[in-house]
Amino acid sequence: MQEYGLQLYSVRDAMKKDLPGTMKKVAELGYAGVEFAGFFDYSAKEIKKILDDNGLKVFGTHTVLGELTDEKIGATIEYMKEIGNKNVVIPGAPIGNKTQQNATLARINIVQPILAKEGLTLSFHNHSHEFAKKCFTPVFYPRLTNETSCGLEVDTFWAFNAGIDPVAHIEKYASRIRLIHLKDGFKRKLFKPAQGMSLGSGEAPVEAVLNKAIELGFGIVVESETQKPDGISEVKRCIDYLKSLGK
Predict the structure, then answer these.
(1) CA–CA separation, 6 vs 24, rounded Å?
(2) Is pLDDT above 90 for 174?
(3) What single string gives the DSSP state of each residue in 149-176?
(4) In the 8-state DSSP scheme, what is residue 244?
């Protein structure tokens, strides 16, 4: 069976209460590894022990630009190395106007070579608004792909919600992708926001995305955001769906 990581934001309710116990449950469900969305004040040494105790790999970490400032980047690199992470992913950044975009792109271009010298990759995780057209503000995604050489962690549901064909998109940018988010849900409709769902219960082309991601050799990170009725139940449905596909 294909190895899957879990974005731990999916189980944020449980992580806040019991991080070690939650990661143990994630491993027992059959996930091979995790992508972190915060460490809840645990030291790198403590996180590494929890990973090792449960046989979990680190697929990546969501690390905000605030942790990659000149003052903090050294400590961030040390933490990543100690837990065994090689994929640093920016989960989003200020892009609401051209000035904000310029600052975000400039920081990416400063940080990426610093991380690369330490054996770490830098990627950017999309939502839907990076593809959106706004008056007086450039569309951010083309700027990201044209003005930086950072990697792309494609959130395939948010791309789908933005009207992008996620299969064609990950094929187009394959050389810049190490990880994707495999996610399901329903697109935004008139007066109704987009709705995330566990895998196999929405309208996103999950199986087609999965097939292409396996073909291209990407790391596959499962994410499901709605915690219905709780995070562990939701991510169990996701891994059960993947098992039902035999992939």
Answers:
(1) 12
(2) yes
(3) --EEEEEHHHHHHTT--HHHHHHHTGGG
(4) H
